[in-house]
Design a protein that fits this description.
Length: 460
């Protein structure tokens, strides 16, 4: 008999999506649609602790890595639903379809991080990606949004081809697509190392594109700027978590016995990502574009935890994304709080326009930079600790050095908010949901920074 307990969140979310298809024909108001999706996402989130175990002969697993990342995906979904309710650029006539796409992409991500087999992993990634391509272009007849969607689709299709090519090579070498079986075969594999490297490189390229890692990151800034701001907020956290969770699953389970082959590859990609993202972010004046490069850099930090491929590395990854939800989506809440939130110039004198928003934004920026006592500091510390534990001290030192430019591009926003005046100060009164989200996010970055041990015991 099939054990369906590990799939409880996925089953419930699927039923929610099916119910929403019918419900949407009778209730078309933004409030009722948003409430339906929010409640469905919240109940799905509460089912995660009940879904431990394996199903389908080990092809599907609900463990620490998958459960923690599913929690991140669903929290992100709830945030974005709250963001979208009062976001007028997403018109009422597409709001029904917009909510469906958010749920479908979230379901795809949940399947990605639980897959322990290459075919189901690939199908889950494509299921997730197709929804994301449509989300990027959800604002109809908007040139930037349509361009973002098309660019994302074309480049994403190329990355999927490389991913499938890598899977085919690995299958040809090992005669299996199941990660534990691949690990067993690779332990006995003495020849064909060249083909193994080619397969790993192709897989790495495909997953690196999905995660927005350099040098496969070029799509991120354009897509982030072109997509509606709530969609950009969604892209900045959830798909990256799914891609990097898949990275951790593949490399820590299937390829852990050939770690010496792929460690140099991932080290180069991680350090290159940190260098490129932090340097290019220095000259950005559009805040969504700046956050695009910022999210690329943070993906580089998480990749360092994947290199460790240990229990500490897995905990560092899931804790990093938990903190990242609060600090990144909290920053997006501030961006959405006023009409010119994308423009860096609009933050001059924000403290005088709304002191709470300015102080909250400063907290998020400190956390993104990695300054104590905020959660971002603990997250980066855990990543570097996982590297030191396996003897890659020089990589940790280089990563710290490459993160120095981020101090400038994050804190220059803080300088504008508190020490630069605008010619005309208008009071900013954000919506109730934005104020609530900002307050919850600020509490999140404080709690994760001051009491990280709580989350360690929860995850255990």
């Amino acid at each position: 008999m099939i054990n369906l307990k590990p799939l409880l969140p996925e089953i419930f979310l699927t039923l929610t999506i099916i119910s929403y298809f019918v419900y949407g024909f009778y209730a078309r108001s933004r409030c009722s649609l948003s409430l339906f999706v929010f409640v469905g996402g919240l109940v799905t989130l509460l089912l995660i602790p009940l879904s431990q175990g394996i199903a389908f002969k080990g092809f599907f697993v609900a463990d620490l890595l998958s459960q923690a990342l599913k929690f991140v995906f669903l929290i992100t979904l709830l945030y974005v639903v709250a963001f979208s309710y009062s976001y007028d650029q997403i018109k009422d006539k597409v709001y029904y379809e917009y909510m469906i796409l958010l749920m479908l992409s979230t379901l795809g991500m949940m399947l990605v991080v639980s897959s322990r087999e290459f075919i189901s992993l690939f199908l889950s990634i494509e299921f997730m990606s197709l929804s994301l391509y449509l989300l990027a272009g959800i604002v109809l007849f908007d040139f930037k949004s349509n361009e973002a969607s098309l660019k994302y689709f074309l480049l994403g299709s190329l990355a999927s081809a490389f991913l499938l090519f890598g899977i085919a090579i690995i299958y040809g070498l090992t005669k299996s697509s199941y990660f534990p079986d691949i690990q067993g075969v690779l332990q006995m594999l003495s020849s064909n190392e060249y083909y193994l490297i080619c397969g790993i490189l192709a897989l790495t390229l495909g997953l690196a594109f999905k995660a927005g890692l350099a040098p496969f990151h070029q799509w991120s800034p354009d897509v982030y700027v072109g997509a509606p701001t709530p969609v950009t907020a969604f892209f900045s956290v959830a798909p990256k978590g799914a891609a990097l969770g898949a990275f951790m699953r593949v490399f820590s389970e299937a390829f852990v016995v050939v770690k010496d082959l792929w460690t140099p590859i991932l080290v180069v990609i991680a350090l290159l990502t940190l260098f490129v993202a932090n340097i290019l972010a220095l000259r950005q004046i559009n805040l969504k574009r700046l956050i695009a490069y910022s999210s690329i850099a943070h993906a580089g930090y998480v990749l360092l935890a994947i290199i460790a491929a240990s229990e500490r590395g897995i905990f560092a990854l899931v804790f990093y994304f938990l903190v990242y939800v609060f600090m990144n989506l909290g920053a997006f809440a501030v961006i959405l709080s006023h009409s010119e939130g994308e423009n860096l110039e609009s933050y001059s004198g924000l403290y005088r326009a709304n002191g709470f928003l300015a102080l909250a934004m400063l907290g998020f920026l400190f956390s993104l930079t990695g300054i104590p006592p905020f959660g971002g500091f603990v997250a980066k510390f855990l990543v570097f600790q996982s590297l030191v534990e396996i003897g890659l001290v020089w990589v940790a030192v280089l990563a710290i050095m490459l993160s120095v430019p981020s101090i400038y591009y994050y804190l220059r926003i803080g300088v504008r908010m508190f020490f630069m005046d605008r010619t005309k100060v208008e009071l900013i009164v954000p919506s109730t949901e934005v104020k609530l989200i900002t307050a919850i996010s600020l509490a999140g970055v404080f709690i994760t920074g001051l009491f990280p041990s709580i989350f360690y015991f929860i995850f255990q």
